[in-house]
Amino acid sequence: AQSVAQPEDQVNVAEGNPLTVKCTYSVSGNPYLFWYVQYPNRGLQFLLKYITGDNLVKGSYGFEAEFNKSQTSFHLKKPSALVSDSALYFCAVRVDGGSQGNLIFGKGTKLSVKP
Amino acid sequence: DSGVTQTPKHLITATGQRVTLRCSPRSGDLSVYWYQQSLDQGLQFLIQYYNGEERAKGNILERFSAQQFPDLHSELNLSSLELGDSALYFCASSMYNSPLHFGNGTRLTVT
């Protein structure tokens, strides 16, 4: 069965510093991996996805993610954090045989960026 | 703005009651998904419709049902409500095999 784990409930970063939000996954076949962000009182917004190809995926708002098959990880990164990046971040994996909307989400990581 | 509209924003009701949540998908999107977000269970996929037909089911209780109408809007019906059904219910839409666009959710409180 597929699953994703986000080992950190919260990540604190100073503005201007690089940030990393961690995600590991478990799938039986080829992984379809996603990152979504949720701002307070809003729905989730798509950031980026990995299906195949280059291990470094670039997404919205300057975010990128690195797919590592040997470590079964898909960490979200940004070179220079902004206060406005503070939000809840979700890693997700597609359900086997499902569409890109049939997802299993991690529990989320709260990112706090301080000025 | 994602283009996905959910109504109502908030709903307060009593145990044992029945409610209907409504979702209008983004223009052109044929797929509608329902997700439940709660503190203890996290974000869980409930059900997917594609162009009026049920396409996939997740952790949806038998007390819950959904449908998608010819104009592509969708409704999620929750009946015999229990305290544990209190949660944020999100609707999302997409073209069939593309990432999701989420609405802002309906916050359901069961008292």
Structure description:
Chain A has strands spanning 3-5, 10-14, 19-21, 24-26, 33-38, 44-50, 56-58, 64-68, 73-78, 87-94, 103-105, 109-114. With 115 residues, chain A is mainly beta. Chain B has strands at 5-7, 10-13, 19-24, 31-38, 42-50, 53-57, 64-68, 74-78, 87-94, 101-102, 106-110. In chain B, strands 2, 4, 5, 6, 9, 10 and 11 form a seven-stranded mixed beta sheet that branches. In chain B, strands 1-3-8-7 form a four-stranded antiparallel beta sheet, with no helix packed on it. In chain B, a hairpin with a 5-residue loop joins strand 7 and strand 8 (74-78). The mean pLDDT of chain B is 95.
Structural class of chain A: mainly beta
Helix and strand run of chain A: EEEEEEEEEEEE
Report the major sheet of chain A.
Answer: 6 strands, mixed
Shape of chain A: globular
State the low-pLDDT regions of chain B, or none. Answer: none
What is the terminal separation of chain B in angstroms? 31 Å
State the main characteristics.
heterodimer; A: 115 residues; mainly beta; four-stranded antiparallel β-sheet; 0% helix; 50% strand; globular; B: 111 residues; seven-stranded mixed β-sheet
Q: Topology of this protein?
A:
The complex is a heterodimer of chains A (115) and B (111).
Chain A: E1 3-5, E2 10-14, E3 19-21, E4 24-26, E5 33-38, E6 44-50, E7 56-58, E8 64-68, E9 73-78, E10 87-94, E11 103-105, E12 109-114
Parallel strand pairs in A: 2-12
Antiparallel strand pairs in A: 1-4, 3-9, 5-6, 5-10, 7-8, 8-9, 10-11, 10-12
Chain B: E1 5-7, E2 10-13, E3 19-24, E4 31-38, E5 42-50, E6 53-57, E7 64-68, E8 74-78, E9 87-94, E10 101-102, E11 106-110
Write a compact overview of the structure shown.
The complex is a heterodimer of chains A (115) and B (111). Chain A has 115 residues and is mainly beta. Chain A contains no helices and twelve strands.
